[in-house]
Amino acid sequence: MASQYIDFDTLKYFLYDLHELDEVIKQERFTDHDKESLDMFLNSVKEFSDRELFPYFKEMDEQPAYHKDGKVFVHKQVEVMMKKGGEMGLISGTFDYEAGGLQLPMMVYTASAFIQDAANNHLPGYVGLTLGSAELIIHFGNKELNDTYVPNMLSGEWGGTMCLTEPQAGSSLSDVVTKAEPTNDGYYKITGQKIFISGGDHQYADNFVHLVLARIEGAPAGTKGISLFVVPKKRYNDNGELIPNDVTTVADFQKLGQRGYCTTHLGFGDADDCRGWLVGEAHQGLKYMFLMMNGARIAVGRGAAAIATAAYHASLQYAKERPQGRKLTSTGKKDLDKSQTLIINHPDVRRMLLLQKVVSEGSLSLVLLASKYYDLKETTKDPAEKEKYSLLLELIIPMVKTYPSDAGAYSVSNGLQVLGGYGFCADYILQQYYRDIRIFPIYEGTTGIQSLDLLGRKVVMENGKALEYLTNEVMQTIQNATKFDDLKIYAGKLGEKLKLAQKVIVFLTGFAQKGDFEKFLADATPFMEFLSNITMGWIWLDIAVHAKNSLVTGQTTYSDTFYESKIHAMKFFFKYELPKVNGLAEILLDEESLTTAGEKETFNL
Q1: Could you give the domains of the chain?
Q2: Buried-state track 316-353, b at ≥16 Cβ within 10 A, e below 16
Q3: Which of 31, 107, 205, 520 could pair covalently with 511 via S-S, beta carbons 3.0-4.6 A apart?
Q4: How far apart are CA 160 and CA 152, in angstroms?
Q5: Residue ranges in the chain modelled with pLDDT below 50
Q6: 338-362 residue pLDDT tens
Q7: Distance from C-alpha of 554 to C-alpha of 41, rounded to nearest angstrom
Q8: What is the pLDDT at residue 599?
Q9: pLDDT of amino acid 330
Q10: By CB neighbour count within 10 A (0-12 exposed, 13-18 middle, 19+ buried), where does 155 fall?
Q11: Residue 387's closest CA among 456, 462, 494, 439?
């Protein structure tokens, strides 16, 4: 297994220098924090990850979670993750002091979780889902719910989950049928099933607090009739004792990857004695859940970026150690009298490694930028600034979730290829990263769902105002790049792609204006890839501008080679990845419809 899973210098460079964390911690909410204290926090997370997460990564895949006699059994490090996570603030970090939190910026929490995800992506989800469900209770639950559940969740004594998906209702939440029957005693009787519940049960938590979407009897049809409930695995009786709450662990799904991260099938009310407590107002459940979804989708992008990063370092280490073949001489032939060269000296291997570098580092920068927008829209007092960062965040969130996931899987696949036949063998870790990352394009809304959201909602949101804000940000970077002679050509290339994006968007929205929404959205997924690649071109040009400026001014924290490598990576992205936008534009500007369902049967058996 590789001895290094992240480049800590790159993480800190993006966090402190490129994305200017100082700008965020000037906000009133974060005045108790400074760079030194936050650096200490990140260093402690790295030490914890080195000691308690990374060494168990392969073992957790080989000893997966399993279901037996109505219980789920997981690896012993889950207990360490829950308890130490509670002690270190890995569950409560972003919450208010009054709720037992540390009031950390989302940027810092994201950076800390990225370290953990890269070290062992099977473990952070246990605390991450507990954080998410506690956050729902804190934001929308009454004092009794907060007092009863939140302290034990933040300490890691109790786990938490979010229960949306049902056997007959995946992404189509309007088809949720789990029922909530009101009683005269302040609770509801819950009946139904939920599937794909991450971290839904294991032996290392005394209780599980499930946040369940259910439909109160007589509620309106569709998503407008869905409410949110706290449904604990165990509830308190009149004597203050924890007793079973008729929540059954039906099964644990055996998966392609993330095998150490349990994924359960839960049954509620099989014995007609499952009690749930309404969170907030009736029929507002989906609204409450989706108010937390930006954080959840940043988390998915972060996790995918982390796996892609760890895979990059594993394949890079292999390429530096594996001798094979010989470099070509000036005659174009191999000199067999010379010893074999390391495979990192072969151009095609370097191409694959650079692909991994630009995808993983670019994804990390994108995720941190989204976290910055999140922090600023939550804390700024200026209404104009709040609107700007809110709209920017809404627009890029589908890309933040999707690009690291889809491009990350492609990146890890290339990392596996670097190892050749060994990459396909269980002796080497790349095949595990490849399996682990494959779930990320599915988590928290599939690529198709995110693409429909991006094109169908976000691009046209408020008459294109969000897109206008993003365009202004890109244009500012282009303008900054033109100040350096060796970056002007790349500024010009990105400017051309921006014009192409405007052409594509005008063409596609024309169908929406005519009421042909099926044609408007039929190629939403190619559009996602199209706009994401342009956005990543901006991300990389911005990195290069900052690196170049540091070299020119001499205001450097790291070696000249460090900054030069970022500029080289930008050039690689612009040569090998950004031109793909042209082919995608050709697809998107073609009026022929080949995927919409028609009268003729396309898929003949």
Answers
A1: 32-291 (2.40.110.20), 293-323+342-588 (1.20.140.10)
A2: bebbeebeeebeeeeeeeeeeeeeeebbbbbeebeebb
A3: 520
A4: 10
A5: 1-2
A6: 788 999 999 999 999 999 999 999 9
A7: 29
A8: 62
A9: 66
A10: middle
A11: 462
CA distance 175 to 194: 12
Q: What is the pTM of this model?
A: 0.96
Tokens for 139, please give them.
Answer: 């934001």
Tokens for 602, please give them: 């396309």
Structure tokens at 404: 């690291």
> Token pair 């691009």 is at which residue?
459
Which residues contact residue 216 at a Cβ distance below 8 angstroms, ignoring those fewer than 6 apart? 179, 180, 181, 182, 188, 225, 227, 282, 283
Q: Are 230 and 137 in contact (CB under 8 A)?
A: yes
Token digits of residue 307: 């796996």
Cα radius of gyration (the chain): 25
Report how far residue 267's alpha carbon sits from residue 276's, in angstroms, rounded to the nearest whole number: 13
Amino acid (one-letter) located at 521: L
Give φ, ψ of 140 to 5 degrees: -125, -15
Q: DSSP states of 315-339 as a string?
A: HHHHHHH-B-S--B-TTSSB-TTSP
* pLDDT of the residue at 91: 95
Angle of CA points 363, 369, 370, to nearest 5°: 90
The pLDDT value recorded for residue 2 is: 40
- Report d(CA 360, CA 348) in Å as an integer: 18
Alpha carbon distance 423, 431 (integer Å) = 6
How far is residue 260's CA from residue 120's CA, in Å, rounded to a whole number?
Answer: 10
Q: Considering only CA atoms, which of 258, 174, 234, 229 is closest in space to residue 442? A: 258
Nearest-angstrom CA–CA distance, 361 and 325:
30
9-33 residue pLDDT tens = 999 999 999 999 999 999 999 999 9
Residue 107: HSE in the Cβ half-sphere, 13 Å Cα cutoff? 32
Q: Are 563 and 592 in contact (CB under 8 A)?
A: no
